[in-house]
Write a structure and sequence with these properties.
Blueprint lengths: L2 H16 L3 E4 L13 E5 L2 E7 L8 H12 L3 E6 L2 H13 L3
Parallel strand pairs: 3-4
Antiparallel strand pairs: 1-2, 2-3
Length: 99
C-alpha cells in the first residue's frame, strides 16, 4: 500500500474508533487470504471493512472477490473507499438502521 493509501487507512481506522467502533489494519502475509480489505472491524455489532484507494486506483480482482465474500456473509464493505467521509457514510447507514 502506497503512503497516501496508508494515511487514508489510518484515518479511517481512527474515525471508526472515534465513533465507538473497533477496527484494525490487515497486514498480509503467507497465512492471510489474498485480497482482504485494508481495514476491518466491528461497528455497533456489524462487521465492516474498507479497502482504501486513492482516486484513479481500483480494487484488484482478488480484492473485489473478497468484498463479495464479505457481503455474502452479511458484512458491510466499502471497496473502494476513497475518503474518510465515504467511510463515515457507511457507519451513518448503520446508525440510521439502513444497513
Amino acid at each position: 500500500m502506497g503512503q497516501p493509501e496508508g494515511r487514508l487507512a489510518r484515518a479511517i481506522k481512527q474515525m471508526v474508533f472515534n465513533r465507538g467502533g473497533f477496527a484494525w489494519k490487515v497486514h498480509g502475509n503467507e497465512y492471510t487470504p489474498v485480497g482482504l480489505p485494508d481495514i476491518v472491524g466491528v461497528y455497533r455489532g456489524r462487521f465492516v471493512a474498507f479497502e482504501s484507494k486513492m482516486p484513479g486506483n481500483a480494487p484488484t480482482p482478488a480484492q473485489r472477490y473478497r468484498a463479495q465474500d464479505i457481503r455474502r456473509a452479511g458484512g458491510l464493505v466499502l471497496s473502494p473507499c476513497r475518503s474518510v467521509e465515504e467511510a463515515a457514510q457507511l457507519l451513518d447507514r448503520i446508525d440510521s438502521g439502513a444497513a
